[in-house]
Structure formats: structure tokens, C-alpha cells
Write a structure and sequence with these properties.
Elements: E1 14-18, E2 25-30, E3 33-39, E4 46-49, H1 50-55, E5 65-71, E6 74-87, E7 91-100, E8 109-110, H2 112-115, E9 119-123, E10 126-130
Parallel strand pairs: 3-8, 4-7
Antiparallel strand pairs: 1-10, 2-3, 2-6, 5-6, 6-7, 9-10
Length: 131
């Protein structure tokens, strides 16, 4: 028999979302504050409406809106921001996001800057997120 085994134990956290007819809705906690999102695998980043960003204490200046982006409501401009912590039962830290004018975005989007850092699958009408 040889010496002691070095083992790492990883406990996976899984969150399963159902499509409610409007998409995969989830309440996330951004830096500890609750914000509603639709999970959007087609969105390159987390996108926050200005009113939601303001609730988080995020207030980009007009000069910060330098990113041109296509939304469902047309072309708009967005401001880059960094979120310390995004939690949906799964926690991701230091996540890039954008703030978009309310008229350009009807709901907050939980996009790929979050999703690319976890494992996710779409199975039988459910979205399964795992870390």
C-alpha cells in the first residue's frame, strides 16, 4: 500500500429552469440585490436596463455609452460595466455586462458573459445550468 491519496471533491450545483411561455425567466442576485432576467443564449453579455442598473447603484454617464449593439428593438448604444457577483443558485464573480436604455430593451438579459462560465444544456424544454 502506498501513501495517502490526494483527492479533490467537487460538488456540482445545478439549477433547472422551465420555459414559462416568455422564456427562461430567473431572479438573479447582482451584488446581493434581486433583479429579474430572461436567460438569452443569443445575447453576448448580461444586458441591464437603465432602471435595473440604477437599482444596483450603477449610473453610467452619457459618454460611457460607446458600444453599438443590435437589440430586438433596433440598434442602440450600451455602456460597459463590471458586476462583482451574479448569483442564481450558481455564483459567478467579476462578470462583464452592459447597460442599455430602457426603450431599447424590454427586459434584462442573462447572456453569455455569465453562461460561458458555467455548463448549460437545453433538454426536454428545460434549461439546466451547472457549476
Amino acid at each position: 500500500m502506498s501513501g495517502p491519496l490526494n483527492c479533490a471533491v467537487t460538488i456540482a450545483t445545478t439549477v433547472t429552469l422551465s420555459n414559462n411561455g416568455r422564456g427562461f425567466q430567473v431572479e438573479a442576485r447582482i451584488d446581493g440585490r434581486p433583479i429579474d432576467f430572461i436567460v438569452d443564449t443569443g445575447a453576448s453579455a448580461i444586458a441591464l436596463r437603465e432602471t435595473s442598473a440604477a437599482k444596483l447603484g450603477i449610473h453610467p454617464a452619457a459618454r460611457d455609452y460607446t458600444i453599438k449593439m443590435q437589440t430586438a428593438n433596433g440598434v442602440g448604444k450600451a455602456a460597459r460595466v463590471q458586476l462583482d457577483r451574479v448569483e442564481i443558485g450558481i455564483t459567478v464573480r467579476d462578470v462583464a455586462a452592459v447597460v442599455v436604455a430602457d426603450e431599447a430593451l424590454s427586459t434584462n438579459l442573462l447572456g453569455m458573459t455569465f453562461l460561458s462560465r458555467i455548463k448549460w444544456t437545453h433538454y426536454r424544454g428545460k434549461l439546466v445550468l451547472e457549476q
